[in-house]
Amino acid sequence: MQTGERIAPSLVALFEQYLERDDLSDFERTTLQQARQSGKIRAQDYETAHAKELSCLTDNGYAITTRKLSNGLYQTMTIAPLPASDDEVDRYLDASDRCAQGVSKIIESLYTLQQGNPDLLSDSYEAAVVCLRKAGLVDDAFTGDRLEQLINSDISGQELPFEPNLDSAQSCFAGAGLALSID
Fold first, then answer.
1. Does a cis peptide bond (omega within 30 degrees of 0) precede residue 81?
2. Where does 11-143 have alpha helices with state H?
3. What is the rounded distance in angstroms from the CA atom of residue 176 to the CA atom of residue 130?
4. Which residues pair with 63 in a beta bridge?
5. What own/partner pairs with CB < 8 Å and gap ≥ 24 does 154-163 have?
6. Backbone angles phi, psi at 181, to 5 degrees
7. Which residues contact residue 15 at a Cβ distance below 8 angstroms, ignoring those fewer than 6 apart?
8. N or C: which end of the chain has fewer CB within 10 A?
9. CA–CA distance, 146 with 125 (Å, rounded to integer)
């Protein structure tokens, strides 16, 4: 992937692309129409989508705890009961997919881009590093390739030039669609 490659020319272009779909729920269509007009998805629409998904998961027997990061995105902290076997994982993933359909799947992904990757960079690691730079956690010499190497190695956190569990770092990871937590 080439550095600086973008997903789309703008968020509005992405909203318009999704509005062409014929499988949107009324909630998704209304939210995206409003977003096309204003240029962004409203925080309250993201909150509504998130709450509906969590309510559905609760109705399916799962207790999910989340925390709200400084960029407004939710990060899942715990799932109970924690799926242990392959069958339990499959059941949870099926319930999660059903609960997100028509509610948060599209809205959450677009809101995540809006909040965490406003440059719409195609490379998640590059997007995370841009955010980490803006947060003052890394310098210009730190690259997306280096972050990818570190995340895909067996790191303890000591190899990173910043504390990965800081809210500002976690906001960058979540906004880029990455998950990294060092115990």
1. yes
2. 11-19, 26-38, 43-59, 86-100, 105-116, 124-134
3. 10
4. 80
5. 155/182, 156/182, 157/182, 161/137, 162/132, 162/137, 162/138
6. -145, 130
7. 32, 35, 36, 110
8. C
9. 9
| 110 in Cβ contact with 134 (< 8 Å) | no
pLDDT digits (tens, 9 = 90+) for 107-136: 999 999 999 999 999 999 999 999 999 999
**pLDDT (tens digit per residue) in 7-26:** 999 999 999 999 999 999 99
Residue type at 105 in one-letter notation = K
Q: What DSSP designation does 83 have? A: P
User: Looking at this protein, which amino acid is placed at residue 172?
Assistant: C
Hunting for tokens 């309510």 — which residue is that?
55
- The answer to whether the beta carbons of residues 66 and 75 sit under 8 Å apart is yes
Among candidate residues 11, 16, 21, 49, the one with its CA nearest the CA of residue 33: 16
- The residues pairing with 64 across neighbouring beta strands, listed in sequence order, are 79
Pick from 24, 183, 172, 30: which is nearest to 105 by CA?
24
**How far is it, in rounded angstroms, from Cα 57 to Cα 179?**
21
* Residue percentage of the chain with pLDDT more than 90: 85
Output the pTM of the full model.
0.88
- C-alpha span between 114 and 131 (Å, rounded): 12
